[in-house]
DNA sequence: AATGAATGAGTATTCATTCAT
DNA sequence: TATGAATGAATACTCATTCAT
């Protein structure tokens, strides 16, 4: 009702640690019971603080989930695109680069499969999360699209934007299916198929080194 | 999901119609407000019956959602595989058959995008739905896998099961992104990319007719 | 959040009785603990029903207080103006009629002094109650004003509206001070003073009979 | 209202100023949001100090409201009775003196109508405030009563105490209705009626000068 | 078969007050 | 003296489910 509710922005070491404890506890709770099964009281208890303290750091349980997910996605995103150019400089082929992305993506998704489930469900339930996920995904495909454009002469495809999105979709869904659960087929066969499909699709020659494009011409 | 109470199995015409009314009302409610925003009272009201009647036909709101989704998926599944063989007999190429699947899938997913969202969220929230979705998806990939095996000599790929799943994944996610959301790229470009990717991946020659395999040998 | 909350309008005998029980319990609670000290749970408990039942009959505690007060004011209002004309026909003087009003007002205010306190506080706290009280008071003064106009030739005063309001104010406050508590002076002396003040103010001759004005002229 | 903790009685200039700042902030908060809508944190924030500091100066929010109201009433009370004798010495009539009181009362009540509302509501809600208001009102009527006794030979009325209270009641309520609300009749007509009613009631000749009573006899 | 009144555990959130720093 | 982080009891309100009629 009143607008004097200020959310605590921790500067002190103790406060920062308390906020972290809350986020860790929240992650555990969300992972175990889902969004609707989790409540502020439980999170606070898990973190060893009072409900009041929870509400001092976060406006509500949606806010804390948001912050948790945000932090994770930032980590994932960074980890994927960071090493790509280095790989290429090492003379990796298209197929190898794709394989590397699969490996990184796999690791990222397996950081916390439980949380991943919650995150995935939220984008279908909540408008804010939907929007956030869309923006996030958009960012990823844009990066991928740009990445593809830097090597356009090695590519089969011409519509880079569409390709980036379709490939990202295939990656997403396959990662999720592996991370959240039911692998009807062993993970390696699945990843091999994924690598094969996207490599064949994207590259003129998936097994040629990607770097030093000038030399090939 | 246990059936501790006797749930009415309608034999009478009036009962069947009442059950249908309940399911229609439920679909509308779930679509508009999501699973957690919907309650039994609202569904009953929408169907013009009492809460008691609702509970006479369904154990709880999960049960009615289950039944609704089940019905839809059956329809979708049938619509996709029904016409495939006919297409092939008409001399369609691999690319054309894939294109046909995309068209059917698109229609199916756009039958009720709202409900689709609920369905998608539920598989991340609820164990029963997760299991169901897995089985369903498994069924689809199995069918696809079998379908691929009937034309193995025309295919690039060798691991049919893995291919079926990866292709199904790419389809799923792309359909969903179009159905539930903000397409960053126009739908047609996306679908073309999807068709291109999967055709190139699956077939030795995506533009050769699939039928009469004996002739080619 | 959802708008399917329908407030139960009792038609059955049992329901009507339940609603009455709730209102009686609420009156007791409000009287004893004031508005902010009372909660739905307590009212329900007092009425021997569950909280849910409370909320089935009333949207919130404000609503039930409103209904209680409304009922009381209707009773008060009716009791005051009902017998006035009869008194006049019996040849009562202005002073006697005023005395009669004081008597009726006193009875009305003493129906439930505790509730009166709550009612009075609410008009200063809550906008809806303020508005309601204003309307109600307006109604009373309007009636009084009309009543005065029927005997304008017997009156000293010329601005009937202003007189009606000032007289009503004097009545109100004196009634309240007697009903809610601290009589620094005995009630009868106070009422006599009130009668004296308003009679002298309103009438040319407070001790002449009010009826049959034609005869006097 | 018990003082279990040591409440700071400011002697230092800085402390006095801090207390004033708190009271000013509290007035603003109470006026804007009422008693129940206001909380210690908000007041402290408004005063630019910490909650702890608030509790160092006041036991709770009731205490600060008490102090604020007390200060205001003292001011009002003084302003009303201060100039009365002077007016009389200037040869004012009874009606003119009453008119002067109305003017002063009006000004006093309009100092902070918002706070007035809070004050009025509190006397119906809280026992301590009720008692305080009673005492305060008692004081006013006692003063008025004494004032009247100094001019008993000019008065119609004989029961000075009762008259003082009834007149005070009429004043109170009319002032409040003007200050807090929707005047159904213009303020001037209302005040004129009030002056007329009380003058006619109190004085033998409302239009004769009050001073030098000996000369008249 | 159908109704819908009744239940009450459960949930999110606030805020007066304390107390270690 | 002053701070403001921390506490946790308390509150309004909802909704899945039952069961007497």
TrEMBL record, chains A, B, C, D:
Classification via Gene3D superfamilies = Homeodomain-like (1.10.10.60), Tetracycline Repressor, domain 2 (1.10.357.10)
Residues annotated as DNA-binding are 39-58
Say yes or no: keyword DNA-binding present.
yes
Q: Does the keyword DNA-binding apply?
A: yes
UniProt keyword terms in alphabetical order: DNA-binding
Superkingdom per UniProt: Bacteria
Domain HTH tetR-type residues, every copy: 16-76
Coiled coil start-end: none
List the PANTHER family hit by this protein, alphabetically.
ACREF/ENVCD OPERON REPRESSOR-RELATED, ACREF_ENVCD OPERON REPRESSOR-RELATED
Identification of the protein by name: HTH tetR-type domain-containing protein
Species of origin: Pseudodesulfovibrio nedwellii
